[in-house]
């Protein structure tokens, strides 16, 4: 059968091409165009738009006036159809592990954790970046709906960053599924629910590291530092971590001028892989040369080389460069510091090149005036002040003048101090001072000259091992109480001592430790002359402290101290050199130096042995932004006349303290009471200081 043309295609009425474009238009198109459009072609009667379809003779298909369709036979279900694990059946799309981010926000993950192993990390990042969490939409359903779209896009981006490029996120708001999922939220309290279907995780494909192979023998080490290989799960966070690790490895392997371009990741959805391009230019391997300074009379290059932890010829390490910069800043003498490796000779073959470390500095303000005020029960008030020029004798030669005006102590002194003396973090100190004290135990008027050479542990460079040694010359005139309100006769002592100190410190912070331990020993052989008689003895003290974190908010700390002075009687030892107990750094609840043997009028006379123990719980609270803490404590201590501690008269104190964390260190206020006080002990003690009690 030959199909009949439709009416609109009737060759008897449709205009021909020659009618539409005459020969005159071809001969002279411009004139023809100026004539305008031709008159419309009239429509024949049988082409009228109101002509009924059943009157069109060209159609031979009858119009279906009373069409009845037969019923569709139901198909039997296919028994062999299964759903992939990562694309669960619709009936199970509301099932899974639920993470309640907040009252208004819930994420549902697949029950099988292997389909999305990073769910905990993803949830944490999502919570940190969530618009709903940040803005706290509350009961505003319209605002929550708008924020949920942003969070949905955020969740999809995070899934892609973890390598799930085919993941689906189904959003439900206020109990009504946005894309067909059934929600269970209470419309009275609007909430958002995200159902995560991760899909297949993409893998790393080809890796291009540019010229990294030019590192030669270091190439394998560099690849190990990056840590990812073709076929590994695609994770943008791990790629960024690998890039940083590769950059650090290059800096530690002797490549000061290494450059790494921005990474490029090309994702192929057909292969379900991502090809990574990370162009690396090593730019040669180098060793250290010398250190130069732009301020040679202020901090010379020679002095800076003594501070540095590298020698000329050592392999360049970026960590050594950064360490030198921190050490220069730690002097407190400069406001800005810039270090730049400068090529002296290029690499030749397998021989590395040489770079000098060029140090550019600007001077800081070198004069400092300081002041402080403190109070302790039994010690009274103490006002201290000082003036210091930190580089009066370059390099790093400081002069300090200090004074104390207190209820029971007055002091005037001058100190010379050379930091980084003959090496890093080694300090030479010469201190001359005169002081008068008026304690319950004794009065003393003392002049001292002390020289110390030490290796310090500082807030910026806390060390596991620190030590000191020195020489001490003391001339002191002292007297003890004989009766109430009266003192005994003055007695003069001339003392020479060789004090030494060593500490092993594994704690995590000098002022506020939360874990680790400290062990220290002080040994000072001394000779003292009084009334023409010489006495030889050794002052020794051993301290141990331990810090145990019980949780993120609770640290249990313990301390023990044992001290002894063998070799002389109590009367042969100057009162200021004897051992005393009690006070803020000893047994809290008792007055300063109030524990131990006493005179007939009840004043402490000191002893030759001491034992102390402390236990406290350092508890963080949520008050003041988490800066406020409380510290319940119990202390115990004893002082005896003999060289061996006697626990028959041990004193115990207990109380509670408050700590305010300033960021630099905690401010400490302790309130203690004596649990077994003597007749001359106060009812309580209050102690204020910076840092923990131990």
UniProtKB/TrEMBL annotation:
The keyword Protein transport does not apply. InterPro entries: Bac_surfAg_D15, D15-like. This is BamA/TamA family outer membrane protein. GO terms for cellular component: outer membrane. It is found in: Membrane. Its main location: membrane. Residues 399-694 form the Bacterial surface antigen (D15) domain. The keyword NAD does not apply. It comes from Croceibacterium salegens. It comes from the Bacteria. Residues 1-42 are annotated as: Disordered. It holds the Pfam family Omp85. Keywords: Membrane, Transmembrane, Transmembrane beta strand.
């Amino acid at each position: 059968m030959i199909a009949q043309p439709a009416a609109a295609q009737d060759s008897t009425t449709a205009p021909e091409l020659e009618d539409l474009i005459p020969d005159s238009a071809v001969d002279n198109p411009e004139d023809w165009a100026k004539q305008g459009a031709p008159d419309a072609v009239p429509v024949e009667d049988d082409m009228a738009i109101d002509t009924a379809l059943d009157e069109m003779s060209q159609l031979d298909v009858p119009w279906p006036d009373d069409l009845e369709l037969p019923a569709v036979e139901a198909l039997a279900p296919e028994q062999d159809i299964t759903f992939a694990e990562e694309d669960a059946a619709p009936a199970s799309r509301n099932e899974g592990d639920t993470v309640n981010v907040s009252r208004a926000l819930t994420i549902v993950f697949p029950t099988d954790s292997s389909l999305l192993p990073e769910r905990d990390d993803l949830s944490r990042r999502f919570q940190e970046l969530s618009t709903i969490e940040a803005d706290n939409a509350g009961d505003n359903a319209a605002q929550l709906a708008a924020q949920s779209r942003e969070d949905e896009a955020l969740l999809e981006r995070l899934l892609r960053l973890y390598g799930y490029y085919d993941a689906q996120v189904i959003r439900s708001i206020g109990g009504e599924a946005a894309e067909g999922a059934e929600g269970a939220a209470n419309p009275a309290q609007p909430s958002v629910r995200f159902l995560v279907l991760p899909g297949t995780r993409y893998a790393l494909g080809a890796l291009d590291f540019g010229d990294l192979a030019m590192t030669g023998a270091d190439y394998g080490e560099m690849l190990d530092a990056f840590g990812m290989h073709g076929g590994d799960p695609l994770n943008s966070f791990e790629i960024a971590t690998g890039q940083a690790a590769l950059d650090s490895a290059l800096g530690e392997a002797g490549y000061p001028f290494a450059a790494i371009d921005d990474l490029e990741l090309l994702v192929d959805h057909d292969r379900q892989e991502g090809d990574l391009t990370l162009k690396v230019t090593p730019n040669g391997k180098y060793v250290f040369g010398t250190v130069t300074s732009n301020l040679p009379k202020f901090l010379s290059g020679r002095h800076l080389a003594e501070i540095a932890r590298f020698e000329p010829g050592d392999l360049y390490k970026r960590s050594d460069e950064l360490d030198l910069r921190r050490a220069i800043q730690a002097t407190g003498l400069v406001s800005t510091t810039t270090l730049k490796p400068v090529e002296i000779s290029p690499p030749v073959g397998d021989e590395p090149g040489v770079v000098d470390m060029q140090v550019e500095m600007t001077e800081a303000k070198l004069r400092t005036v300081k002041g402080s005020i403190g109070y302790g029960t039994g010690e009274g008030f103490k006002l201290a002040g000082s003036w210091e020029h930190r580089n009066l004798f370059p390099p790093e030669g400081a002069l300090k003048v200090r004074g104390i005006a207190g209820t029971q102590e007055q002091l005037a002194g001058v100190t010379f101090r050379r930091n980084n003396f003959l090496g890093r973090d080694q300090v030479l100190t010469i201190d001359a001072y005169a002081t008068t004290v008026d304690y319950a135990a004794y009065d003393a008027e003392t002049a001292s000259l002390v020289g110390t050479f030490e290796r310090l542990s500082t807030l910026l460079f806390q060390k596991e091992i620190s030590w000191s040694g020195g020489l001490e010359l003391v001339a002191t005139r002292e007297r003890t109480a004989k009766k109430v309100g009266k003192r005994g006769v003055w007695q003069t002592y001339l003392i020479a001592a060789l004090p030494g100190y060593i500490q092993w410190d594994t704690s995590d912070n000098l002022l506020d430790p939360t874990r680790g331990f400290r062990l220290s020993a002080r040994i000072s052989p001394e000779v003292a002359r009084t009334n023409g008689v010489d006495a030889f003895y050794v002052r020794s003290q051993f301290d141990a402290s331990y810090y145990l974190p019980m949780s993120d908010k609770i640290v249990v700390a313990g301390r023990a101290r044992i001290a002894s002075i063998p070799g002389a009687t109590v009367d042969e030892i100057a009162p200021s050199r004897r051992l005393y107990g009690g006070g803020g750094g000893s047994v809290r609840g008792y007055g300063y130096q109030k524990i131990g043997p006493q005179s007939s009028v009840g004043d402490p006379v000191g002893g030759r042995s001491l034992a102390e123990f402390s236990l406290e719980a350092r508890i963080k609270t949520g008050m003041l932004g988490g800066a406020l803490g409380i510290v319940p404590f119990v202390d115990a201590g004893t002082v005896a006349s003999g060289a061996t501690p006697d626990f028959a008269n041990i004193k115990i104190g207990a109380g509670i303290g408050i700590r305010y964390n300033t960021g630099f260190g905690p401010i400490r206020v302790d309130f203690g009471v004596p649990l077994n006080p003597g007749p001359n002990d106060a009812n309580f003690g209050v102690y204020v200081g910076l840092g923990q009690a131990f």
